[in-house]
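pasting for ref. prot 1 ->
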Amino acid sequence: MFPSYLSVARIDQTIQAALSEDVGTGDISTLATIAPNKQATARFLAKADGVLAGIWVAERVFKQVDPAINVSWTAHEGDWVEKGVWFGAVEGPARSVLTAERLALNFMQRMSGIATATRRMVDAARPYRAKILDTRKTVPGLRELDKWAVLIGGGKNHRIGLYDMMMIKDNHIAAAGGIRKALDAAREYIKNKELGVEIEIETRTLDEVREVLTAGGADRIMLDNMTKKKSDGSLDVTILSEAVQLIAGKFKTEASGNVTLETIPQIAATGVDFISSGSLTHSVTAMDISLKIRLD
């Protein structure tokens, strides 16, 4: 069910930290106004169109607050729902339901927002071979859930952290003394440490692409900001196209910069293998979801 970097234990740790932050020493509003023996039923309502994500995490929130809460769903992770659809229900002690409500919704709204934005980009790139990637521009402490939401939306994960892929960026190149020195050092490090990781290197110009190729290439070459906005609002992908042609399929290519839902088709049409977008997670618009409670 989970990607390899996630587990029930990891999710529970995240939920516990969030509950500690939110509930603190007690939900005093609920404790003051709701009798201990009150029971409640509540239903989840989609107040916007989008891809559902995080419903398993939301259910786990309710169970951690009170195992006596029962949660049921009429939709699944990754389902597209329309505004106005009821897609799940909870039943149990009213105090517990109210205490868990906001945190469960926070997780689900953020993850659903990420999954929805991802699905739209994936759909925009569908006529081409390009795959949509996320980045490390995530909320600290929520990266694994953010990236899971990208997968639920149909995208692909880039690297999870600094440890599972070697990403040589412009600052690494400058500090190492150039592209060739950075690549040579990266290959030597991987060999000496016996690491089974790929190397990606960032390029910003056609000359840098040529230098990477003469230095033996890399598993993936990032073509960073090789597009330009025209005065009429359209996108000039000339340099990006030339870079893809220069690499000629010898190495995987990844485009980044000026990536929006509107520009995805133009970028994908150049023949790049991947398109990465930080906006999937750093500028996400949460999907509007509510929980309507009825006391028994």
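and prot 2 ->
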Amino acid sequence: MTSEAAASPLLELRKVNKSFGVVHVLHDVDFAIYPGQVTALVGDNGAGKSTLVKTIAGIYGRDNGEYLVDGAPVTVHGPRDVSALGVEVVYQDLALCDNLDIVENMFLGRELSTFGLLDDAAMEAKARETLASLSVRTVKSVRQSVASLSGGQRQTVAIAKAVLWNSRIVLLDEPTAALGVAQTRQVLDLVRRLADRGLGVVLISHNMNDVFEVADRITALYLGRVAADVPTTEVTHNQVVELITAGRSGDLGIRDVASATI
């Protein structure tokens, strides 16, 4: 696991707020993603994880607060702007098409062409190269239909698709949900390899075993507020559970938990 680095964040949100009508979902949220590190984003249902991820992804705008990349404020109007910044999100539904093969899925909507014709050879070569660079050995052929893949293989293809576009930051939404033990192992190994390549990785997960195995940092949300942002080595499993469920654990967490419930 990567040691705590002095590197500056690749991406940072500062004092971000987001409301939907009268419902205040994110409260002065600070969140940072570092190169070469896996940051686990944890929280109970309704804590604001999805809203935070969609704010990073440009799906939701911010009510206020700063969005910085490499320390400089940027203006984000939508997902296309975020992709141009090197940020990719792999959602839980994976957004893969069963009737297409792996190559077609990886280049869906971004197909390569030469003289107006699809360049299948170039796309297949890039797909193979990307999977090889991630040390993926569980996929027999890049021409397999996605319908024939296991859950772990699908997750691998979705992650490789995100990495294909020279992304610097990858956000993974519950990547091991509904996977068996062996498939979970494959995906967690891949998550770790992404960070080892210098990418900033965000792992959104309810599985504390996964979090403690691969994450360098843990950011715990409680009712839309950051209860803690700490190196994984400095907290215990029980402390993280308490932060998620109560917003506080000993000296760690939100000082006035009662105000957070208002």
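The CA atoms of residues 55 and 253 lie 23 Å apart.
The two ends are 38 Å apart (CA to CA).
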